[in-house]
Design a protein that fits this description.
By secondary structure, this protein is mainly α. 81% of the residues lie in helices and 0% in strands. It has four helices and no strands. The longest helix has 21 residues, at 29-49. It is elongated. The mean pLDDT is 84.
Length: 67
């Protein structure tokens, strides 16, 4: 909600945005909750595979080689 309000304030002249404008920018709460659930699930899958840790380890190792 805060992000939507900030965008409206940034892109419009003060006093021209209405509640109707804000409702167009704000997705339904259920949609937001489902998106958070999908992100959490995807992050969990990445964590389970070890991909993130492997990538970070490769990056850290590559930095040691340069030094």
């Amino acid at each position: 909600m805060e992000t939507a309000i900030a965008r409206v304030r940034r892109w419009t002249v003060p006093g021209t945005a209405t509640a109707v404008h804000l409702s167009l920018l704000r997705p339904p709460r259920e949609e937001v909750e489902r998106a958070f659930e999908r992100e959490t699930e995807a992050a969990g899958q990445v964590e389970e595979t070890g991909l993130a840790q492997a990538g970070m380890a490769r990056f850290a190792e590559s930095r040691k080689v340069r030094e």
